[in-house]
Specification:
single chain; 210 residues; alpha+beta; globular
Length: 210
C-alpha cells in the first residue's frame, strides 16, 4: 500500500492521522508540491486530478480524495472507529468534516490562489479572501460543536471531525489567522497535540519537511 503525499498538504495530513490512529503504516511516496511534482505525467497517471493524496492499494486500485481514503480505511480496519455508531451523530461528524474539507480548505489550494493572481488580484486581496474563507469555516465549526462536552469534537474519542480540524488549525496558524474567536476548536487542537497519532502526523515530523 502506497500513500502519495506531501508534508504540508492538509489533505495528506488528514490521512496520516487516520492511518496512525488505526496503527497502519503505508509506504510513503513524496511529491514536492512546490516543485510542481504533482503535475508530472507519472503522477497524473495515478491521480488525474493531480492532487495530493492518493492511495495505491496492493492490487493496483487507486483511491483519491482524503475523505474517501479515510472512509475506506475505516471500513477496512474498523477499530478504533472514526465515526460514531449513532446515525445522527455520525451525520454531524461528517458535516463538520465537510465544512473543512469542501468549504474551507479548497481556498488554501495553491492552484486556486495562482488563478486569482493570474486574474489580476493583488497579493493583499488573495490573502484577505483566504482569511475570510477560513474565518467563515472556523466560525461555523465552533458553532457546530457548541453543545459537545469534549475533549474531542464529538465526545471522548477522536473522529473524522478531529482528523480534519487539526490540519485546518495548523493551516490557519501558518496563514496568521487570529484563532481567539474559536476557543473550543483551539482547546481540541491542543488536546489532540498530546496524542502520539497526531504528533507523528504533523508536518514537522515528516521526512520531506523543509
Amino acid at each position: 500500500m502506497i500513500l502519495h503525499g506531501y508534508f504540508r498538504s492538509s489533505a495528506a495530513w488528514r490521512t496520516r492521522i487516520a492511518f496512525n490512529l488505526k496503527g497502519v503504516t503505508p509506504q510513503s511516496v513524496i511529491h514536492n508540491l512546490r516543485d510542481g511534482a504533482q503535475n508530472e505525467p507519472a503522477y497524473a497517471a495515478i491521480n488525474p486530478q493531480k492532487l495530493i493524496p492518493a492511495l495505491e492499494l496492493d492490487d493496483g486500485t487507486v483511491l483519491t480524495q482524503s475523505l474517501a481514503i479515510i472512509g475506506w480505511l475505516d471500513r477496512e480496519v474498523p477499530q478504533p472507529p472514526l465515526v460514531p455508531a449513532d446515525n445522527a451523530l455520525r451525520a454531524r461528524v461528517e458535516a463538520f468534516a465537510l465544512v473543512i474539507a469542501c468549504e474551507t480548505h479548497p481556498f488554501q489550494n495553491p492552484k486556486i490562489q495562482k488563478r486569482l493572481r493570474a486574474k489580476g488580484f493583488s497579493e493583499a486581496d488573495v490573502q484577505d479572501w483566504l482569511a475570510v474563507a477560513m474565518n467563515e469555516g472556523l466560525s461555523a465549526c465552533e458553532t457546530l460543536i457548541r453543545d459537545q462536552p469534549g475533549p474531542f469534537c464529538f465526545g471522548g474519542a477522536p473522529t473524522l471531525a478531529d482528523i480534519c480540524l487539526v490540519p485546518q488549525i495548523g493551516s490557519a496558524r501558518r496563514y496568521g489567522i487570529d484563532l481567539s474567536p474559536y476557543p473550543k476548536l483551539v482547546a481540541i487542537d491542543a488536546h489532540c497535540a498530546t496524542l502520539p497519532a497526531f504528533i507523528a502526523a504533523r508536518p514537522d515530523q515528516q521526512p520531506d519537511a523543509v
